[in-house]
Specification:
The protein is α+β, with helices and mostly antiparallel strands. It has helices spanning 3-14, 44-51, 55-59, 64-95, 101-114, 119-128, 133-153, 162-178, 197-213, 219-226, 241-249, 283-313, and strands at 23-24, 27-28, 33-37, 40-43, 180-190, 228-235, 254-255, 259-260, 264-275, 316-318. It is built from 12 helices and 10 strands. The strands form 3 sheets. Strands 5, 6, 7, 8 and 9 form a 5-stranded antiparallel sheet that branches. Strand 8 and strand 9 form a beta hairpin. The two termini are 36 Å apart.
Length: 321
């Protein structure tokens, strides 16, 4: 895991705020133990801290019953993450993996430098999110510990060779070459803003009348008269699916029936269609980026496997919230 991966995780943590008191079901919750992992407690205060940023959005919409259901789901999800965190902490102690104050400070300085902030600006931003410096550094330490444990325990399970990367590149190359390109023009008859059913019917009748009259030879003149443009070369995915599906059915120099889009009716003339040439950079230019992407995905899968293994070996007891 490189600095970018650490930074991404720390940036996520920076969005977490804190609330002093959490109301749940209309009553104030008293501090207590909400779960144990191998007899190590997880406290309600930890759950409250991590749930707090999401509560205003939950309370802003829905019925009281829906709000309660959403809170239940949120608390359950966060509790599972806290259990994973405790399992990592215990694994780190068993492996004698430690994060020093110097490790934490380097990570913090990396975040400050990459965001182009001064120390004062950064810590003001942290406090603005509800963190104290101590709380922020504690969370940075936890994330670094997780990375160290995963690198030591599961990194060896991942073996991505240059041949693997090349195969992924060639797969993307084949996919890019299968994409169709369309050279097309369209006549466009717009709908008024917030059209009524009558408006839609009127423009549809006009579009059908234009379609009956227009030919490939007169299409350019019709574009000038009614509106439209030469769309040039389009790739699959450039147009909404409803419009693109019409182009997929046309032969070269064929004109479509009117098709309704979001803002009006389109009549397409397909000039020609071909398989798209790949615009991917050369392998040497992208192999490092592809390797990093493949490594990150593989590490996520291995982390999930590792946590399942830790859970299977642990004694976990949850209490009703």
């Amino acid at each position: 895991f490189g600095t970018a991966g650490i930074t991404a995780m720390i940036d996520v943590m920076a969005g977490v705020g804190f609330m002093g008191v959490l109301l749940y079901g209309g009553a104030e919750i008293i501090e207590g133990v909400i779960a144990t992992v191998n007899d190590e407690p997880i406290f309600l205060s930890e759950l409250r801290q991590q749930a707090a940023p999401f509560l205003p959005r939950i309370y802003a919409s829905g019925s009281p019953a829906e709000q309660q259901a959403n809170i239940d789901a949120l608390f359950s999800e966060i509790l599972e993450k806290l259990i994973d965190q405790e399992l990592i902490e215990q694994a780190a102690r068993e492996m004698q993996v430690r994060v020093t104050s110097a490790d934490v400070e380097r990570a913090v300085q990396n975040v400050i430098r990459q965001n182009g902030l001064t120390d004062e600006e950064f810590w003001n931003a942290v406090r603005g999110q509800g963190f104290t410096e101590s709380q922020y550094r504690t969370d940075v330490r936890r994330q670094l510990l997780r990375l160290k444990v995963l690198n030591q325990r599961v990194r060896g399970r991942v073996n991505i060779t240059e041949a693997d990367v090349r195969r992924r590149y060639e797969q993307r190359l084949r996919q890019a070459n299968r994409v169709l390109r369309f050279q097309t023009s369209h006549i466009f008859l717009p709908l008024p803003e917030n059209p009524t059913a009558t408006d839609v019917a009127t423009v549809r009748r006009q579009a059908r009348a234009v379609r009956r009259e227009v030919t490939p030879a007169t299409f350019a003149d019709a574009m000038q008269e009614y509106g439209g443009s030469d769309l040039g070369w389009l790739r699959q995915g450039d147009l909404p699916e409803r419009l693109e599906s019409v182009l997929m059915t046309l032969e070269d120099q064929e004109i479509s029936d009117p098709v309704q889009g979001d803002r009006g009716f389109h009549i397409f003339l397909l000039h020609q269609r071909e398989r798209g040439g790949s615009d991917l950079p050369d392998f040497e230019q992208v192999k490092d980026q592809l390797y990093q992407q493949m490594m990150e995905r593989a590490m996520v899968r291995q982390e999930e496997t590792f946590l399942r293994e830790l859970r299977a070996e642990a004694i976990i007891a949850r209490k009703e919230l």
